[in-house]
């Protein structure tokens, strides 16, 4: 099964303190709630979640990021590359991302229209 809402091995599992990443499906729209850190120990889980996004035929895919405490450059790059691989009018909607994530996207991918940053 390629359901992006399935929990994959490594997602949300116990990791050393400060190196946790929790990814779970949103209940009210297509997308994921992401909490914790995207860093070297959690890259595999992050990239697996992003890979499942491109397999979905939805116009928009939401990422609730208000509980994301850190994302490194490799994590932002993976997000940007995922957005670039989307078809036509598909887009990623980042809800309440950390300010640093928005700044990095603006700095390195200012014209990436497949990502919408929504602050609530």
Q: Mind explaining what this structure looks like?
A:
The protein is globular. The chain has three helices and five strands. Helix 1 runs parallel beside helix 2 (73-84). The protein has a five-stranded mixed sheet with strand order 1-2-3-4-5. It is α/β, with parallel strands linked by helices and 120 residues long. It has helices spanning 43-54, 73-84, 99-108; strands at 21-25, 31-38, 60-71, 91-95, 115-118. Mean pLDDT is 85; it is low at 1-16.
Main traits of this protein?
120 residues, alpha/beta, 5-stranded mixed β-sheet, 3 helices, 28% helix, disordered N terminus
Compose a concise summary of this entry:
Helices cover 28% and strands 28% of the residues. The chain has 120 residues and is an alpha/beta fold. The protein is globular.
The Cα radius of gyration reads: 13 Å
The count of DSSP E runs of length 2 or more, i.e. the number of strands, is 5
Sheet with most strands: 5 strands, mixed
The helix tally amounts to: 3
Q: Per DSSP, what share of the residues sits in E-state strands of 2 or more residues?
A: 25-35%
Physical arrangement of strands within the biggest beta sheet = 1-2-3-4-5
State the separation between the terminal residues, measured CA to CA: 33 Å
What is the fold's blueprint, element by element?
Blueprint: E1 21-25, E2 31-38, H1 43-54, E3 60-71, H2 73-84, E4 91-95, H3 99-108, E5 115-118
Parallel strand pairs: 2-3, 3-4, 4-5
Antiparallel strand pairs: 1-2
Helix pairs in contact: 1-2
């Amino acid at each position: 099964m390629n359901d992006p809402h399935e929990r994959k091995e490594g997602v949300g599992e116990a990791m050393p303190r400060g190196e946790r990443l929790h990814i779970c499906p949103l209940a009210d729209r297509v997308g994921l709630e992401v909490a914790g850190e995207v860093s070297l120990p959690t890259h595999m889980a992050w990239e697996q979640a992003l890979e499942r996004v491109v397999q979905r035929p939805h116009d928009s895919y939401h990422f609730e990021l208000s509980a994301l405490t850190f994302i490194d450059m490799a994590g932002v790059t993976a997000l940007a590359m995922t957005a670039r691989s989307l078809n036509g009018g598909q887009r990623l909607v980042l809800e309440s991302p950390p300010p640093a994530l928005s700044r990095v996207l603006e700095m390195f991918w200012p014209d990436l229209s497949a990502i919408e940053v929504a602050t609530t």
